[in-house]
Design a protein that fits this description.
Chain lengths: 632, 632
Amino acid sequence: MSSEASRLNVMAAKNIVIQVTTSAAMSKAGNQLNLAAIGSIADQVSMLAGKGHNIQLVASGTSTSGAKVSGAFNALLSLKEPEGSGLIHVSTHPDESSLASSTIQSTGSTLLIYLSHAQGIVDSKGKVVSTYDPSTALLSPSADTSNPMSLSSSSFVSSAWELASGHGCVVVMASTSETDVLSRIMAGHQIGTVFDPAALTTAAGSAVGSSSSRDMAVRARAASRALQALPTEERVAILNRVAAALIQHQEEILTENAKDVQEAEGKVADSLLQRLVLKPSKISLLAEGIRAIALQEEPIGKLLTKTEVAEGLILDKVTAPIGVLLIIFEARPDALPQIASLAIRSGNGLLLKGGKEAARSNAVLHRVITQAVGPVGPDLISLVQTREEISDLLGLDDVIDLVIPRGSNALVTHIQRNTKIPVLGHADGVCHLYIDEAADLSMALKVMVDSKVDYPAACNAVEKVLLHASWLNKGGFDSVCSALRDAGVLIHAEGEAVTRLLSDAPPAPSGRHEYSALACTLRVVGSMQEAIDHIHAYGSSHTDAIITEDFSQAESFLKAVDSACVFHNASTRFADGFRFGLGAEVGISTSRIHARGPVGVEGLLTSKWIMRGSGQIVAKDNGVSYTHKRMS
Amino acid sequence: MSSEASRLNVMAAKNIVIQVTTSAAMSKAGNQLNLAAIGSIADQVSMLAGKGHNIQLVASGTSTSGAKVSGAFNALLSLKEPEGSGLIHVSTHPDESSLASSTIQSTGSTLLIYLSHAQGIVDSKGKVVSTYDPSTALLSPSADTSNPMSLSSSSFVSSAWELASGHGCVVVMASTSETDVLSRIMAGHQIGTVFDPAALTTAAGSAVGSSSSRDMAVRARAASRALQALPTEERVAILNRVAAALIQHQEEILTENAKDVQEAEGKVADSLLQRLVLKPSKISLLAEGIRAIALQEEPIGKLLTKTEVAEGLILDKVTAPIGVLLIIFEARPDALPQIASLAIRSGNGLLLKGGKEAARSNAVLHRVITQAVGPVGPDLISLVQTREEISDLLGLDDVIDLVIPRGSNALVTHIQRNTKIPVLGHADGVCHLYIDEAADLSMALKVMVDSKVDYPAACNAVEKVLLHASWLNKGGFDSVCSALRDAGVLIHAEGEAVTRLLSDAPPAPSGRHEYSALACTLRVVGSMQEAIDHIHAYGSSHTDAIITEDFSQAESFLKAVDSACVFHNASTRFADGFRFGLGAEVGISTSRIHARGPVGVEGLLTSKWIMRGSGQIVAKDNGVSYTHKRMS
C-alpha cells in the first residue's frame, strides 16, 4: 500500500481552474439551476480570490446548460463585495466529461479542481482514494447513484494523470455536495482524489509528507493483527522495552518538553502549564506504570463462556482486541505512553492526536515508543501531526472502531456530536448526593464534604446535595450548610425552601450545572422518590449516592437510580478505575453501550466466537442434536 | 409532559410568509452575502411556488442589510425557470427580532416560517422542543454560539404565540443551517419549533394526531424505569399476559393481517408476501416463544463481578437494561411481538418502526401487546406510524440508546450510514470457507455444500471457497467443483488458476460479493496465510471457517482471523443465536463495539456499578486502605 503525502502542491497553487459540471449545478431533472450549489461555490470562489488566488471558473456542459450556469455564476459573483487582489473569470467548456485543458494552459494554472457529483476515484471496495496511484488497478470514479456520471472513467483518469504528470497541473476531483469543498481542498484537507506524482512517496517511510489519517488507520489495523499473532511473552517484552526506552531517552524527552513549556508560558493557564510539564520523576512513574501493565494477566483470548453446542461441537466466546482506536487528548503528554501501552497490551492499533501545546513532547515520545515496538513496526501507533483536523479524523468511521477523548468537557461534547465512531467517555459529571431522612448525619456530612472537596474539578465530584425535608426541623439543614461553608464550598440555592432559608446564597445557574470548583447546589426534597426523579431529570448518569441507615430504602435507591455508578454510604469520589481496582484506567463512560462507568483494559476489548467441530453440518437443523450445555 | 400532534396546520397552509433574518443570510463578519444560504432558500421557495404556495419572502434586518438580502433574493429568483401557479414576492422588514405581522395580515397568510441561526426554542436541558407549550416554563431560543441572536426570547416567544393563538397564523421557527429546511417543514417533518395551539393535544392519548417520536422515546425511558422497578414475577406475568392476549385476539389479528396481505398481493415479491402472512400456527408459535422468554433466568441485576475495594466497601458490577431501543423492521409482522417481549424481559423501552406493507398487522399487534402491559403503561412500547421518516428517527441520538435494524442489507447499510445511534446488526455476510492442504476432503465437501445450500440467502452462507493449491494435483479441485455443481451451485471463477481451469465459469462480479443465492466464488490460494490475508481484505468479518486435520494450523487460523465467528471443521451456518444456544436472537452484529456475532438478550443489557459502604471517604486516597479483593 502506498502511503500518501500531504497535498502541498494543492495548497501552493496561485492560479486555479475550477471546473464545475453543469449536471452538478442543475437540479436532478436538469431544467432548474441548483442555486444552493452555485451559491456555495460562488461564496468560496470569492473568498479564495480574497486571499489572492486567480480563479478561472469553468461551467462544463452542453452550450445551453453551460451558458445558463456560467450566467448564474456571473450574476451571483456580482452580488459579492470585491475583496483582496485575486481575479475571477467565468467561462464555459463544451464537454462535462473532459478536462478544461486549454484554459489551464492559457492561464498557466497549476491546479485544476474538478467538481461533479462524484466524490473521487474509488478502490475495489468502493472507498474513495485520497491520492491516485497509477500502479493500483481497478479504480473508477464514484458516482451519486441517483445521478450517475456520464464520464468514461478510464479516459477521464488518464487525462487527469497526463495533466498532472506531463503538464505539472495537479488535479483534484471532488463532489459539490461536500461542505465547503473548495475552502477545505485549499486548506490541504484530504477530500476527494488528488492526481499528483509528487504526492506519491516512492520509498516507504519517506520523510517527504505525512500519511493520510485514513491510510494510518488501515496500516494500524494490519500492524495490530501482527501484534495479536505474537505470543504473550513477546507482547510483554515490547512493553518492557517501551518502559526502558522512556528512561533511556529521558534527556531528549525533557529537552523537547522544555521547548513546548517555554512556548506555552504566558499563553496558557497555569493549570494547563502544570499538566504540560514532564519531570524525571513523572517519567520514572510512567515507566513503572507500563511495567505494571506488562505484568497484568493476558487480556487477549480470555475464555468468557464455553458451550457444548452438540456432541463434539464446542463453542468458545473469548476476548479479542477491538482493532483500531483513535485517542484525542489535550495538553497532557504523559497520556501518550500510558495509552500506547494499554493499546499494545490489548493488541490494538492506535491513532493519536495530541494538543498542539505538547507537539514536540508528543513527537519525541511517539518516536521513542515506536522504535521500541520492534518487529510489529511503527505503523501500530501513528501520531497524527498534519494539518488534518479533528473533524477529518472523526469522519473515518469505516476504519476506526472507537474514539476515546481525554480532555475537557467541551472536547468530549464536540467529539460526541460530530462523529459516527462510538465514543468512550463522558461529557459531564453532574453527580448528586441524597441525604435521606434516615441518614447518620455525621456520616452524611463527612461523605458530602469529601465528595466535593477531595478534588472539586473532578467529574466524580458532587455538584448537588439533595437533603430530605425532615432535616429542616432537626437542625440538619444548618449542619449541612456549615459543613460545606467550613470546607470553603460556596452554596448555590435551588428550590423554594433553600432560597428562603439562605437568602444570601446565589441561585444555582441552572438545574444541571457542573461547577468544577468549590461550589455546589443545595436543594430540599420531600422524599427519596423525589430525589430519584430529580436525579433522572437533571443528572448526567455518572455517579449518584444515598446516605441512609435504612438499608431497605438504600436498596430501592441503588436499584432505581439509572446511573453508571450508584453508591450507598460512600463518597462519589470512589468512582474511578484505580479505586475500583481495574488497574489502568481507559476512561469513565456514561454511554450505555459497550462499557459503562470507570473502564479498564476491558474497554479496549471485544469478543469473538470460536467453534471447533469434526465436520458437523446444519442440514435444516437435522444435522446435529443440540445439547447447549454450558461448560464454563 | 404533553404529547405533540402532527403538524397538520403547517402542511395545509397555502399562503406563507417566510421571514429570513439578514444575519442568517450574510457572512459572519456581516459584510458579504451568504450565497449558499440564499441560493438554497431560493431553490426551495421556487419549488414551493411550483407546488402552488403563494410566498412572501421577507428579509428582516436594518434597511441596508435588508435591501442587500432582498436584492439578492430577487436576482437569484430571476434565474429560476417559472413553474407552477404560486406567486413569490420579496420584501423587507426593519427588525430582525420582531415578526413580520403586518405582511401576514395583509396577505392572509396562515403560516410564518421564521429562519435565523436559532434552531428553535430549547427546554431547560438545551434540547429543541418540537411544539411550543405555554404551560412549560424556562424556554429560550437556541442560538448558534458563534453568532448569538439578538432577539429577546420572551418578547419573540410571546408575539409568536399571540400570532398563533390570536390570529390563526401558525409560526415555525427553524435554522437556515438545516438541510432543505423549508421543504421538510412543509412535508410535516418535526424540524425547529412550531407555535400552534391545535398542535397541543389537551387530553393525553387523544386520537387527534400522534406523538412525536422524540416524545415517545422520552416517555419510553420513563416507562422502562417503572418496568425495571417491578419485581421479577410481575415482569414475567406481563409476558404471560402478552402471550395470552395474542391467542385471545387471534381473530382480530388475522383479519387485519389479511387486509395487509390483500393490499400487497401483486405489488410485492412472493417471498415478501410469504413473510407478511400470519397464520393461527404462527401466532401459537409466537405465544409459545414469549412464554419461553418468560421462563428464562432474570436478566436484570445479574452479578457480573464483586470486589472488596476496602474493608466494608463492596463493589458489584451488575447487568442493567440499556434504556430505549429503536427497532426498524421490514415486512415481517411476527418480529413485533418477539422483539417487544425481549424488550420487556430485559427492562427496556421500545420504539418500533415497521414496514408500510404490514401497517395494519403491526397496529393491531401493538395494540394487543400494550393493552397487556398493564400498570407500566402503553408508553413502554410505541409504534411510530406517522409520516415521520426513518431519517427523523435516526436523528434522535440523545434519547435513543441503540438501533436494531431487522431487514435487508440495503436497510441496514442505510441506517449505519445515517445515524450516530449505535447500530446492532450487520450489513452483509461475505463468509469464507478455506479448505486447507491437510483437509479431510470428504468432510470439506460435506461442510462446504451445507454452508452454501442449507439456506443460500442467509447471512451466514458461504460466498467464497478458498482452496489450497495442493488440491489442484490431487484431484480435489474437480471434486469441489462437482460437489458444488451437483448441489446446484453456480461457480464464479476468481484468480488465474480457477479462471483457466473453469473456462466456462462466469467471473466473480467483485472480490467481495454476497450472492444470497445458489452461487459462490471459487479461488485457489497458495497457503493458509494467503487465505487469511484474503479474508481480511475481502471478507465482512461475519463468519469464516477452515477445514483441516492439522490442528495446529487450525489454531493459528482461529487466532488470526479477525471475524465475529471463526470455525474449525464446522459449517458456517452454525453462526446463529438459536444454534449457539443463546435463546432468543436479537440479531447478528459485525460491529466490534458492545456485542459481536450472534446476540441474545445480553445485547439489550449494559452494566451498572453498585457500591455499598459504611461512610468511607477518599481523602486523597488516605481515607481507606485499598484491598481490591475479587470476591466473585
